[in-house]
Amino acid sequence: MTAHGYFERQATALLTEAAADDLGRSTPSVYESGRLVSDAPWLAGHALRLHFLCTSQNPDGSWGSGEHGLVATLSAAEALLSELTLRNSIHLPRPQLVHTAALAVTRLNNLLGDHLHPPALPDTIEAGLITPALIEQVQQRLGHCGHANPPFLLPWAPSLLFAHPTGCRPAALARLRSAVYEGRALPQHLWRIWEILAPATDRPHLCIRPRAGTVGCSPAATAAWLGSPATGSAQQRAGLSYLHRVQARYQGPVPATAPTTITERARIAALFARHRIPHTPPPALISSLRSALDTNDAPSLLLDADETATVLYVLLHHRERLRPDHLMLHYTDDHFRRLPGEAAPSPVANAHALETLALYTVRQAGDRGRYRTVLRQVLRWLLVQQQPDGSWHDSSHASPYYATACCTQALATCAGPAARPALARAAAWALATGRPNGRWGRAPACTAEETAYATWILLAGAPQSPAARHALTAARRVLHHAHVSDRTPALWYGKDTYAPLRILQATRLAALHTLYHLPNPAPVPWQPARAARTTHSPSGTP
Fold this sequence. Notes:
Layout: H1 3-20, H2 30-39, H3 46-55, H4 70-86, H5 94-112, H6 127-145, H7 170-181, H8 194-197, H9 219-226, H10 234-249, H11 261-274, H12 283-292, H13 305-317, H14 325-328, H15 347-363, H16 368-384, H17 400-414, H18 420-433, H19 448-461, H20 466-481, E1 492-493, E2 497-498, H21 501-516
Antiparallel strand pairs: 1-2
Helix pairs in contact: 1-11, 1-21, 2-3, 2-4, 2-9, 4-5, 4-6, 9-10, 11-13, 11-21, 12-13, 13-15, 15-16, 15-17, 17-18, 17-19, 18-19, 19-20, 19-21, 20-21
């Protein structure tokens, strides 16, 4: 098989697989699984979710990765305490549950016990609201421990008092809960955190209108809205069916978001289009992206600016005749807002919007004047967002390599000579932060995902530099042998961190395709038997 044929076959197969899956594929979420343990013990897979929480705990008693693991740790700890305090658990050996919960509480005391120097809040979705809600619930569970007979935690556990990390918004949480109890409508982007806004009840809340059985595409929010396994209405039956399908896919645990079909399909197709991998998307995939722009037909809530830009980019690449009106709804004075009321604008969303508008004006030259000012302002805004060290950061991803790769690719494509200094600084940062073995990543780990991003940063800013050429050759060897599996580090932000596995497969394939076309390429495994594939566990097989 030729190199051209190999990449085309792999890309088309991945798109076909994504088009046939109505949920999407990512790593399971500790946060969402913990909320189901606490709020929906009646749901099938309860024991498997408990086992997942116990076996995924880190040796220090936390869950997740470093500073980004606080929300996951709080959710898992509260779930285990609820299992121990509210019922005589027969799902797992009680000593195992007690040991895991005790480690978790000890870790939380180390993280949140210092009221003079509270930790910083992670950048995960709505962490300022979720964190105080979980702290409140954990404190209540610990209070119940003092009445347990026999006690199952150390005597001092009920007296612990945790500090709120810097950035928590308990007052805003109280206001939102009051609005819910008064029956007032909430912005739709807040539906995804329904599990912290209203307790599970015997009947669904009427101010929420699920779509395709989901509330905010969140298993936890859907379970909290449903409240019980009752199936009196069509919406309740659809919600219960959704929860059963999601937990069955992962054999107990659940992902951070489901379905992710539009995001997954659009990002994969955009990667292949942007990096010129030959591919043939199934007609159903293109049709689903076209329908997603119509909010009445979308299987999820309103698309944010990043998703809208990516969907439009793919459709424009495949010669769909569409105007960027949906994208312009997110435009402010000089940049795009990913969501209404967001705390910090997203450089990644603006980079993707810049690419999409530029592609549109190429396709529709007559409209170029209409968007010239917008393109100029977004370009200027994006350049201002660059950090002093040459990188960009974004609240959608734990690694600066992702945001920097998105921004440098957009600037290299759309900005011309005006962006060369910024691209050079980004490339210098990437070179300075790389490892001698051809890998990149936030300490202490390096990942194939971040290595792929770093190659695009270097190619945008220093393609002829001897140091860059050496680093790219080493990165090519790394990506040649890399594969994406269920153990891939979780760097993407939901309510906790997750890894979108099919998107990461596409990322690796696109980077390898780019590097293969450099002079003196390393061998690429053209034979299908040697091709790098995702390691599918039984819990992740569609």
